[in-house]
Amino acid sequence: MCVRMIAPEEVSISSTAANLPTDETEDPTNAMDTTPMATTPMDNTPMDTTPMATAGPVTAQSTTAAAETMCDQCNIDDIRFTLEPSGDAGADYSTTPRDPVDGCLRTEVGCIRSDGKQCDTTEMFAVNPTGEHSIGDGGSEAYAILACANDGTYAFMDITDISEIKCVFTDCF
């Protein structure tokens, strides 16, 4: 690859240039000539040559309404808790408010034992219109943090519109 070189004697460096700024400032209000133009339309009809007056910049108003969020309005009492096996007196659940994120409520839900029994597994499911979705598991307890979505319902990750938390305790002794 060849690069064209300029001989040193062909280069001239100047400390002044024709386009350097000067101390003279231009008044922007007088920069435009407001004298009407003398033009004739192509069809020879009379033309209004009165200069247009403006009252400042023109801005368009947005017609799109701001999205209203209801992520601070979830109520954990709207979620039903189901404990299985039913009739297990030691099976219980817990709800604990957590610090909001960007103004949106968060609640920790837990499937717990109140009788001190140990279980082989505890599974937690979120129930929504599309079915049951596993959101947590553990030995004798399981926890998950639900976030209040923009529509005012609880969600867990991509599982939205949660209406029920189902706790399943297996082989407790």
UniProtKB/TrEMBL annotation:
Report what the protein is called. Answer: DUF281 domain-containing protein
Residue ranges occupied by any DUF281 domain in the UniProt entry: 102-154
Pfam families associated with the record: DUF281
Query: Where is the stretch described as Disordered?
Result: 14-36
Q: Which domain of life is it from?
A: Eukaryota
